[in-house]
Amino acid sequence: MKKIIFALFTSGVLLFSFNKPTAKTPNVVLIFLDDLGYGDLGITGALDYQTPNLDKMATEGIRFTNFLSAQAVCSASRAALMTGCYPNRIGISGALMPYSTVGINPKETTIAELLKEKGYKTAIYGKWHLGHHKEFLPLQHGFDEYFGIPYSNDMWPIDYDGKPVTDNHPKKKNYPPLPLISNNDKIEEISTLEQQGMLTARYTEKAVDFIQKNKNNPFFLYLPHSMPHVPISASPRFKGKSKQGLYGDVIMEIDWSVGEILKSLKDNGLDKNTLVIFTSDNGPWLNFGNHAGSTGGFREGKGSSYEGGQRVPCLMRWKGTVLGGVICNKLSSTIDILPTIAKICEAKLPETKIDGFDLTELLKGNLKAEPRKTFYYYYRKNSLEAVRQGDWKLVFEHPGRTYEGFQPGNDGFPGAVNEDAKYPFALYDLRRDPGERYDVQATYPKIVEALKKLADEAREDLGDDIMKINGKNNRPVGSLN
Questions:
Q1: Hey, what domains does the chain have and what are their CATH numbers?
Q2: Known catalytic membership, residue 85
Q3: What's phi and psi for 351, nearest 5 deg?
């Protein structure tokens, strides 16, 4: 009886705390990593380095264990995060290149634009990767400030050893120098690994300054780190600090960065008025070996629709509002962040269709809630490679990336990878088989049929290149005039 009374009391306090009027409109800090694996935090099993700030953040908030990137590649995953849409719905696929002539469509509504309408100050410090031409840059999509690189940090004319590329890398040789942009203008060129090693600290310094300047204004701070995407590098302060080597140094510096953000919020009296979200764009780039992260045992990695490519860490902390130490295993995704922020900040959702669901019931501690019941695993331009309902995942026959059977690279150099492996039709029970090793379609034919119907709904809505089906509700990518 005492246990029941205590549980009711705790639940009542949580719901009152979440719903009570606040003196100020809540702030939002969104920290987005590049190629961080599910197993790269202390709380998820990382070895030979520590992540005390992130581990503490988990104990002070909610840790989502069934959280999926919308797609396992850079630009697509960021487009989904910013708009709450599957990236193929809005025409963005893969990773945009320095020679790309497309980007996020100005008709799409970003998180920053939603919050600007509510009077928020908005800033991004880090990697954008939704188009590098001026019309696609952050200031044209709701942000007041931007400091960072416009695309991935390996898109530069520098070889894996840090030296200028030679004729054996014709693609990289034709890349321009990696630009560092402030607002709409290039202010520097990054040409050494040492310069890359200072990016985490420089982004963090800008972010802390933004918090201090806007402590009396509601704000949205987006911090998409360039790392641990290769080439990895750390500042002199963190080099050699990890027993795991440079990769561990890089993650320890990112953990320090998170600590600086949380400290700044506390020092400025904003600790209890700010939702902080930490997650990653996709899983690790496994063929880079000791310069890549860990999937925590999930199958495959970046560039794959298996769980190792899309299952990523996600922490959400809002002291005094969200109960700490909660582990949530409900299905959720980066496309759910926009509607969740909109609900918390009382912002109007986009007029165009989105694919995300509001997660606030889970943040309240109602772990019986199930805002997201299904998920579509699209990859390449518009290929439906798998669908999921609850713990059941149906994988369709498709070509895809595999790292298995190849020796990973070492010290910054990649190992081989097969980009055209043939994956068979299969059904997986992720509750019992999170590694996706045992096909159980013969045992559960009714589940297979139900998931096939779900896939047909996805194809009608969004299309499917594998089946040569055009979707009814896709929207165009932005393009240069």
A1: 2-372 (3.40.720.10), 375-479 (3.30.1120.10)
A2: no
A3: -75, -30
